[in-house]
Amino acid sequence: MSNDFPIEHLIAQHLPEAMALQLHVLPAHQELIAPLPTGYVGPVMAAAEQWLKVHGYRTLGPWMIAWGPTGQPQLRRPVSGALKAIREKDFQTVEVPEQLLLAVPFVGWPVLPHNFTQPVNSVGLNIMGSPMLLALTDSPPTMAWVPVVPRGTNTLFSIERSKIGLLPTHPKPGKQMPMLDAWLRASYTLGRFLTILVIGFAFLMSVSVIFSLLIGDIDLGSVQSQSFVIAFQSGILAILGSQFIIISLLIIFAIIGAYKMNAIANWNRFWQQRPTPPELLLGSRGDGKVGTWLG
Predict the structure, then answer these.
(1) Taking CA atoms, which of 20, 142, 213, 257 is between 20 and 30 Å from 37?
(2) Reduced DSSP (H G I as helix, E B as strand, rest coil) percent helix, strand, coil of the chain, to 5
(3) DSSP bridge partners of 39
């Protein structure tokens, strides 16, 4: 089914300009993700409820329907109560950082990110995730909750799942950021890149040594193998001490820092004349009731 009315016209009617964007802050939480292979939520909800009880989770909000990276439907629900996220074959929980959600009215299906790109961009925002709909309602849903960030600030939000290196905290919606934060964030990015590079190089060298041992090219206790290890260490130190490498890293650091400064300037400009958006209240189970989700 196609949209009965162009969505950009709906946005123009329902989303006020400038000061009163329908933005909400979703606090950090864990979230249950359950695939919907048939698109029918009943059996999946029942099984997911039992799974949550077995693992000791407490539900914080209503059931939501979202779409995965390849367009497959998913059932989601805000939860808490476990020490760490759990990943199993049928169900999993993930850590969700604080998010900005934009309430977008819609008509028709499918509800996929690209359906909202133009209207969301028209109000100075970029989409950062899959739109979500209330799964239990008395009538078909007509409002999608779309994760967004102010345009030009994507680089301030870490989307990597990697635990390598330090990850900067996300900026607080409605709060101004000091420009000096750009250089701290740039150092995090550069440090993470160098860590991954060194780990990858060491892994490749280790594989090379193991392969050489297996085929008999070198003997583990021989002077040749010990010399190889010493040469490897000396090579790493020489690379790290090279003026060319140091200058290159400084240039990269400056470029990253300038890019982060531009993102912070965009963030501050967006929130300069806008109030902090309200939080979505997650203190109720909210089964199919929009009021308990929005507070």
Answers:
(1) 142
(2) 45, 20, 40
(3) none
Cβ-based burial of 167 (10 A; exposed 0-12, middle 13-18, buried ≥19): middle
Tokens of 92: 């999993």
Q: Which of 74, 113, 117 is nearest to 94 (CA)?
A: 74
Rounded to whole angstroms, how far apart are CA atoms 9 and 119?
Answer: 9
Q: Indicate the helix (H) or strand (E) that contains 65.
A: strand 64-67
The answer to whether 122 and 8 have CB atoms below 8 angstroms apart is: yes
145 sits in which H/E element: strand 143-150
Quote the tokens at residue 111.
């509800």
Instruction: With beta carbons less than 8 A apart as the criterion, state whether 118 and 104 touch.
Output: no
For residue 272, give every residue at least 6 positions away whose Cβ sits within 8 Å of its Cβ, in sequence order, or none: 176
Side-chain half-sphere CA neighbours of 136 within 13 A: 16
pLDDT per residue as tens digits for the range 186-211: 988 888 888 887 787 777 777 776 77
Contact 239, 249 (CB under 8 A): no
